[in-house]
Amino acid sequence: MTDRLRFPAEWEPQSAVLIAWPHEGTDWAERLGEVEETYIALVAAIVRFERAVICVADDDVQAYARARLSSARIDMDRVAFVEVPYDDTWLRDSGPITLLKQQGFRLLDFRFTGWGGKFEASLDDQLIEALNTKRVFRDAQTQPIDFALEGGAIDADGDGTLLTTWQCLHERHPDKSREELTAKLSDWLAQQRVLWLDHGYLEGDDTDAHIDTLARFAAPDAIVFQACDDPADSHYAELKAMADEIAALRTRDGRPYRLFPLPWAKPIVDGGRRLAASYANFLIVNGAVLMPAYGDEADAAAVAVLEKAFPGREIVPVPCRPLIWQNGSLHCITMQLPHGLV
């Protein structure tokens, strides 16, 4: 399979970014106004570089979203709406994982279980099929896979190496050994090897340590990761252990990775609950990196790190403080669609 299929890296050319508009029927209802501002800023950033495909629950949601985006002077020629049912808006985990074929695409439709049954997810689990029925995708073959896997749990370098965390995959599949999971991921995702991290977590994260909150490829020989430089912080020891693990990883030709540690934002607490403010939850688009910003002095330092990790790409901060109230950030609510897919 690996000589016919390839899992592209996020920095490869894209057609669009897929998102779902929040509405009163989602978990955003209590703070809908705040999160809408983030979505408006996100769409404004996306359409500077490529198209945005926005899932909407019904005609009313579409009309409202169109009005809000138009009033923000967003180029609506670069926005497309598709009406499909969904439970919530975390499309990184319910959207399609796309492999490139020699001709066309393969959309991997893994089971989405609401992060191990934590939340209702029956509609989200049917999202890819619903989008395919609406003919959103071109020249694509869908492959349903009866195995729980979220897009935020994996990161690919485009050259046959996958990065993931043992905590998340073991939590979803406690009966499977690391060797078994490595074999399954390598087969389905057309990978030559899987790199596992045993350390790393964020308070306020309910994904069981998704890799996209912790460490990401910036190139086949470079990794950006969330660091913690405050010894008094509850994350310090675990993120230091993760940093040591990452430093010990090697590229396919045996060299250490170039490493880019991200700064640590001051604790953000909501109602006594620590929220997961990770700068690693960025989204790569054509010519740019959209970076979650939290209104913290570390935002500027994070921009500087990403400028070094992604030379030649514009770093665009997007205000994401409202998102972390629901335990995710910018990358979590988006799914890039490779060039030619839509």
Automatic annotation (TrEMBL):
Presence of the UniProt keyword Hydrolase in the record: yes
InterPro entries in the cross-refs: Peptidyl-Arg-deiminase_porph (IPR007466)
UniProt-listed Pfam families: PAD_porph (PF04371)
Ribosomal protein is among the record's keywords: no
Origin: domain of life: Bacteria
Gene3D superfamilies: L-arginine/glycine Amidinotransferase, Chain A
Alphabetically ordered keywords of this record: Hydrolase
Name by which UniProt lists this protein: Agmatine deiminase family protein
